[in-house]
Automatic annotation (TrEMBL):
GO terms for cellular component: cytosol. It comes from the Bacteria. GO terms for molecular function: ATP binding; phosphoribosylaminoimidazolesuccinocarboxamide synthase activity. The gene is purC. Keywords: ATP-binding, Ligase, Nucleotide-binding, Purine biosynthesis. Pfam families: SAICAR_synt (PF01259). Belongs to the SAICAR synthetase family. This is Phosphoribosylaminoimidazole-succinocarboxamide synthase. GO terms for biological process: 'de novo' IMP biosynthetic process; cobalamin biosynthetic process. It catalyses: 5-amino-1-(5-phospho-D-ribosyl)imidazole-4-carboxylate + L-aspartate + ATP = (2S)-2-[5-amino-1-(5-phospho-beta-D-ribosyl)imidazole-4-carboxamido]succinate + ADP + phosphate + 2 H(+). Its EC number is 6.3.2.6. Residues 6-235 form the SAICAR synthetase/ADE2 N-terminal domain. It comes from Pseudooceanicola lipolyticus.
Length: 253
């Protein structure tokens, strides 16, 4: 069997060279990390769930005309995506106060914001992904003013789509993070949504009970992470069965 070329290994995913130029295979690991990898664990079934959930959100976005890197799911843990040049920013959209926003501004978690607030962090693990402003982004040339207009518009469209999809299944989208990539078509460059959209990168609260259905379950030791992600998948009709059972193939004698 031919060995695939590994392009990059991150905390939750591995990228391999794809079968055709301009494509990448994105493999979802079961590893969970938090607080810049100070807290680590392997959560059986998480990769399978995130692969399916990211497929669900990204293909929905593609269908409504929000361009993403997603091409197709290959198997339980892998999807084929368009290769792109990642802009070194974490684009965060917040509808309700939570996490670092609540800490920074002293606003109680769960407080509805007067409008969606978009924040940018510079992607650098060594620095702990610091919050930056458009001034830093322009001055250091990470993105142009036109890019920033397009990024804001993409982020708000993703927010409207995800908020609606989640609301329909009784879940409140508190906040989320996306990454944006550049793709080149001849003389033209476009921006697309890249990386992943999953409960690892969103805050999702059950509307009725307030139960957390996202990575805060792991960050804050609130229970079983796969149960929380499976609940999201079940409500969205993404995975009919329990993920942990689907995580490992069984040998048939
Ligand atoms: P924060 O409140 O910790 O800044 O997180 C805001 C949102 O971004 C939340 O939905 C979790 C997500 N997020 C990531 O996806 N990756 C990260 O490295 C961090 C810090 C947050
Ligand atoms: N920053 C990510 C998170 O907490 C993971 C990590 O920092 O290790 O979601």
């Amino acid at each position: 069997m031919a060995r695939r070329k590994k392009i990059y290994e991150g905390k939750a995913k591995i990228l391999y060279e794809g079968p055709e130029p301009g494509t990448i295979v994105q493999y979802f690991k079961d590893d969970a990390t938090a607080f810049n990898a100070q807290k680590k664990d392997v959560i059986e079934g998480k990769g399978v769930l995130n692969n399916r959930l990211s497929e669900f959100f990204m293909s929905g976005l593609n269908q409504i005309g929000v361009p993403t890197h997603f091409l197709k799911r290959l198997n339980m843990r892998e999807q084929l995506v368009r290769s792109c040049e990642i802009i070194p920013l974490e684009v965060i959209v917040r509808n309700y106060a939570a996490g670092s926003f609540s800490k920074r501004l002293g606003i109680e978690e769960g407080t509805q914001l007067p409008r969606p607030i978009v924040e940018y962090c510079y992607k650098d693990d060594k620095l702990g992904d610091p919050l930056v402003t458009e001034e830093h982004i322009a001055a250091f040339g990470w993105a142009s003013q036109q890019d920033m207009d397009d990024i804001l518009s993409l982020a708000l469209r993703v927010n409207d789509f995800l908020s609606g999809v989640m609301l329909a299944v009784g879940i409140r989208l508190i906040d989320f993070k996306i990454e944006i990539g550049r793709v080149y078509d001849g003389d033209f460059m476009r921006l697309i949504v890249a990386d992943e959209i999953s409960p690892d990168s969103c805050r999702l609260w059950d509307i009725e009970s307030g139960r957390k259905l996202d990575k805060d379950v792991f960050r804050r030791d609130l229970g079983n992470l796969t149960d929380a992600y499976s609940e999201v998948a079940r409500r969205l009709g993404v995975m009919p069965k329990n993920a942990t059972h689907m995580a490992k193939p069984k040998l048939i004698n």
